[in-house]
Amino acid sequence: GHESLGSLLPLGSSGHLTFCGEAHPARDVSLRCLDEHRWRIQVDIGGIMTTLEEVEEWNAFYQIYEGATYMNNGRTFLVTSLDFSTRIAITKGPVRTDYYTSVVDKTTIETSA
């Protein structure tokens, strides 16, 4: 059967509509990640795996790789492992480091004369 998540109701006489329901549809839409293939960056907080953020797959390996430092809300996390089947990066932290990591993308082009 079809299950209703809520209703759109008129908001005063302005013609605008407001959502009324228990579900929060906006939570399922990321404004930062438009790519349907995303990596979740997670950390273990008190025995519960918590998602810090999601990154688009095309950009993921510039930010998350084993040994990378990952910044989130001013805190540093250390990427400890990647699960390619579920697209999850596991981190440890927050940690204090006196360094940060970054990827260098280098392309060499050779021409034949």
User: Can you tell me the residue ranges where pLDDT is under 50 for at least 5 consecutive residues?
Assistant: none
Number of helices: 1
Cα Rg: 21 Å
Q: What portion of the residues fall into strands of 2 or more residues?
A: 35-45%
Lateral arrangement of strands in the main beta sheet:
4-3-7-6-5
Query: How would you sum up the major sheet?
Result: 5 strands, mixed
**H/E element string?**
EEEEHEEE
Report helical residue fraction.
Answer: under 10%
Mean pLDDT over all positions: 84
Number of strands: 7
Q: End-to-end span in angstroms?
A: 68 Å
Helical/strand content category: mainly beta
Write down the overall geometry. extended
Description:
This protein has 113 residues and is mainly beta. Helices cover 6% and strands 41% of the residues. The protein is built from 1 helix and 7 strands, in the order E-E-E-E-H-E-E-E. It has one helix spanning 57-63, and strands spanning 7-10, 17-20, 38-45, 48-56, 69-72, 75-83, 88-95. The relative contact order is 0.15. The mean pLDDT is 84.
